[in-house]
Every structure is written in structure tokens, then in C-alpha cells.
Design brief:
- The protein is 28% helix and 40% strand.
- It has a 6-stranded mixed beta sheet with strand order 2-1-6-5-4-3.
- α3 runs antiparallel to α4.
- The radius of gyration is 14 Å and the shape is globular.
- The protein starts with a helix and ends in a 6-residue tail after the last strand.
């Protein structure tokens, strides 16, 4: 059970790093956290590849030390298989809320955890 807790903890640590403005502005740090096969379906509905995200993230919301930051809440995770973790949580940034889901994987022991898939869905103003 503790191995599963460790895996979830490493995925959560990676997720939180990707929300850190000092990481978001660094293409090299972002590339270390995204799987080469990464895909995101953003809150806008846009599909992003790893290359797209590495290029764009430094200019996106949450990348400025003095600008709005992502505020995560309710983050939980479950191990789907050895080396695969599913995280779910909500974020708020600039008054906008989104429900988020991420898949993290470690391809081989010691290779490090990388985000493989991410999806953000806007929360309607009514909160339903």
C-alpha cells in the first residue's frame, strides 16, 4: 500500500510543479515533466501536444510570479496500474474554476514521473 501512496505522491508533486510559475516559464523544466506522448484537451477544447505545450506554457496564465496563480483544491489520486496514476482536482485562477484530470506515468524505474494526459473542463458559474 505504501508503494501506491508513494506513486500518487510523486504524481501530485509533479502536478504541483507544473503550476509553479518558476517552472511554467522554463521550457526545459516543463519538458522534464511532460511525457513525449503528452496530449491535453484544454478548458477551451483545444488539443495540445507536448511540443505545443512546451512552446506555449511560458506565455500562458500562471506563468508570472506577480500574476494570477493556479489554486488547486481537492486533489486526489489513484494507482491504475504499476507506474500509472490518475489525479483529479479543481483549480481556480483569475476567478475561473476548472475540473481537472491527469494521467501520470513512469515508463521505467528511475525514469521519473511525467504527465501523459491532461483534461480541463470549465465549471459553470452555478457550480454544478
Amino acid at each position: 500500500m505504501s508503494g501506491e501512496t508513494d506513486e500518487v505522491g510523486r504524481a501530485i508533486a509533479g502536478e504541483l510543479r507544473l503550476m509553479d510559475p518558476s517552472v511554467r516559464v522554463s521550457r526545459s523544466l516543463v519538458a522534464e515533466l511532460l511525457d513525449p506522448d503528452f496530449v491535453e484537451v484544454g478548458a477551451s477544447g483545444r488539443r495540445w501536444t507536448c511540443e505545443d505545450m512546451v512552446a506555449a506554457l511560458p506565455e500562458m496564465d500562471g506563468a508570472s510570479q506577480d500574476g494570477p496563480r493556479y489554486e488547486p483544491s481537492g486533489m486526489t489520486g489513484v494507482v491504475l496500474a504499476p507506474g500509472v496514476v490518475h489525479l483529479t482536482y479543481e483549480t481556480t485562477i483569475g476567478g475561473q474554476r476548472a475540473r481537472r484530470s491527469s494521467l501520470w506515468r513512469e515508463r521505467s524505474a528511475g525514469a521519473g514521473w511525467r504527465m501523459y494526459y491532461h483534461q480541463a473542463t470549465p465549471v459553470p458559474p452555478t457550480g454544478d
